[in-house]
């Protein structure tokens, strides 16, 4: 794994990517943030050694390097998922590469279903904690000591200082940023009524198919991270209606501008 990470990092350094400070992962339907960047370099995932290929039609599959104010940023426009057939190690490979390239902070976003009845479509929720229900774990197998410890602590997976910066950034943009617990499932199917009830019972406020493996690896490498979910559908098992993925994309797109403003403000303060 180390040799593959280094090969990918060396390739990217040779393209001109130089000591990015903040890494950003843009989730489903979230792409307006790119318009805030003074772009220096755009590289397709397929051209990066050992990178998986984004197979989901609304994930662009581009790595973008540039600046937000005085900060150098490295943005994943599209991520990878276990439901695409990738291993947990493949899903999280880009996080390890970005850390080797120099990022000190990681901001993540995703589209999620709202299990908490107080969460409504289009709202932004700061992930305060998570539950991992995905198959497997990106740290399974022989530990690579150069990357992190065998048993990384997860008592506070989301950095409190980064969370505070995001909360203040939301206030500056006149946005209410609620907090919640995100549960990550494998997918790609959405949940049954019984599954939504189960997830609420175990403490989940929203559900999605990403983010948690990335956060686990970030913590393994002692990379501070924070994440925001966009609520794209309301998962009330007693009034459940079929969900159209195009509607999820549309709702995420409407919240995209607000999320981009929060991320931009936060990055300038990191």
Key attributes of the depicted protein:
270 residues; alpha/beta; 6 helices
Please provide a brief summary of the model.
With 270 residues, the protein is α/β, with parallel strands linked by helices.
The sequence of SSEs as H and E is HEEEEHEEHEHEHEH
Strand line-up across the major sheet: 5-8-7-6-9
| Total beta strand runs | 9
Shape: globular
What is the gyration radius calculated from CA atoms? 17 Å
How widely separated are the two ends? 30 Å
- Work out the helicity level: 25-40%
Q: What is the tally of helical segments?
A: 6
Tell me what you see in this structure.
The protein has 270 residues and is an alpha/beta fold. 31% of the residues lie in helices and 24% in strands. It has six helices and nine strands. It has a five-stranded mixed β-barrel. Strand 6, helix 3 and strand 7 form a beta-alpha-beta unit. Helix 3 packs across helix 6. The radius of gyration is 17 Å and the shape is globular.
What layout of secondary structure does this protein have?
Layout: H1 2-14, E1 22-26, E2 38-44, E3 62-68, E4 71-77, H2 88-101, E5 105-114, E6 124-132, H3 160-172, E7 178-184, H4 193-201, E8 206-208, H5 212-220, E9 224-234, H6 245-269
Parallel strand pairs: 1-4, 1-5, 5-9, 6-7, 7-8
Antiparallel strand pairs: 2-3, 3-4, 5-8, 6-9
